[in-house]
Amino acid sequence: MKIGILQTGRAPEALVKEHGDYDKMFIELLSDPRFSFNNFPVLDSVFPKISDYDGYIITGSRFGVYENYPWISQLEDFIRACFESDIPVAGFCFGHQIMAQALGGKVEKFDGGWAVGVENYQIQGDTVSLLAWHQDQVITPPDNSKTIASSDFCKFAGLTYGKKGFSLQAHPEFNTDFVKGLMSVRGETLNTEIKKNFEKNIDTPIGTNKISKMIKEFFLQL
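User: That's the sequence. What structure does it adopt?
Assistant: Structure tokens below.
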């Protein structure tokens, strides 16, 4: 199965040498002989021909989905075209939000602050610890979606759209060391309470394998 990675942001340069950029993280997360991957930096307005791939992944980003950049509206059009063509799309963090916005939902900068580090999500009846780094979140999900994940901080933390779409607010592609690195290079604006909670919980085991399996099953169900 050929999967196109739609890269909407870049990892901090200081962390790329050790951890790779976002495309590499997803390739490692979904390592499987049934999948092949190509990356497209859509934040530079580089998009594939929709029909050239069997499915797409949308990465995280420092941008907000409500920002007025041409590539963001292009990506929304791309998502809708994929749904019209029955090509599956999976999105994470920014990808989760842009899918919701493209399909009629609402995304805002959450007035409750930030989720940084390990967050506990209710997913399919289980509590799953995953890594998060966001303030924006889906406030109103699209009518055609089903909520499959939530947390105390983020009510609509996971959505599905039948067999066409799967999205999570969390970052299953991140590992603990990478998020510790993020804190060192991007955490200067976070308040003391957030940082203390981060340090307290960051080494909690995370449910990467469960989510990797869910993503693979989503793509292989068609």
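The CA atoms of residues 69 and 107 lie 16 Å apart.
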